Amino acid sequence: MISGISIYEILTVTSLLFFIGIYGFITRKNLISILISVEIILNASVINFVVINKYLYPDMLQGVIFSIFIIAVAAAETALAVSIIINLYRQINSVEVKDTEIMKY
Amino acid sequence: MERYIFYILALIMIVFAIASVSSRKMLRSVIYLLFVLCGIAGIYFLIDYNFLAAIQLTVYAGGIVVLIIFSVLLVHHIELELEIAKLPKKLITGFVCLVGLGVFLFTIYSHDFLVVENDITTTTADIGRRLLSYDAGGFILPFEVISVLLLAAMIGAIIIAKGRKLALKNKEEV
Asked: How many residue pairs from chains A and B have C-beta atoms closer than 8 A?
């Protein structure tokens, strides 16, 4: 654990990051920007897993292993999202949310 | 000492996260995200999970950010300025986020965490043993499932990104 830093301060930072991500998720109008906001939200939750593991149950490893799984799923999700965005750009020449109105190509 | 490093990292992370969700240039926004991810890796180093910090740096900073940069370069002009949300919508969203943050912080600070003082160092060998153990509390099944998921995501990404051309070619061959 970090000497001199309580769990409250770290949880404050992660909550701030989480809501910055949500703010971006709602206000951005571009698919790639929305992807970036989702990455920030996922990372904030991963830090929470790790920090709660370290501060409250230091002899367990569940938090670390779950965060490894979250990172793996996030990588898969990003790869799929980028491929969908590129395919969409080929179909309609745009990646803005408002131009994306049909789900069938 | 560690205390000041944590404050500096927290400041960097929050400033660059705000810059990343409000910058109007796409590529800059991705680079700000890279700084946020490196700051998070720094926090993992501080709480002594070196393996996780290495994963964060390789997978996020080395993989995902490069992938997003590629998609930005394929899809946008670099100089293109993004369309921005209207001011009332921004204000309402900011207000809602602040209320949510208030609820979160109130809950966190009113809960009494039973913190265990410790100096345990977790080695990579411990994590690997736990990940591959068959006993109770082992994670062998999710480990295998996640490898299948990654394979499926890879094949899916290739097929989706290839798009129409592949489908047409298959039809001609049949």
From this structure: 217
Q: Write out residues 138-157 of B within 8 Å (CB-CB) of A.
A: 139, 142, 146, 149-150, 153-154, 156-157
Nearest residue to B107 (alpha-carbon basis) of A47, A80, A12, A75: A12
* Residue reference for tokens 């209320």: B99
Q: pLDDT tens digits for A35-80?
A: 999 999 999 999 999 999 988 988 888 889 999 999 999 999 999 9
Q: Please provide the DSSP assignment of A5-50 as one string.
A: --HHHHHHHHHHHHHHHHHHHHH--BHHHHHHHHHHHHHHHHHHHH
User: What is the ipTM metric for this complex?
Assistant: 0.90
pTM for this model (two decimals): 0.88
Identify each DSSP E strand in A1-105 by its residue range.
none
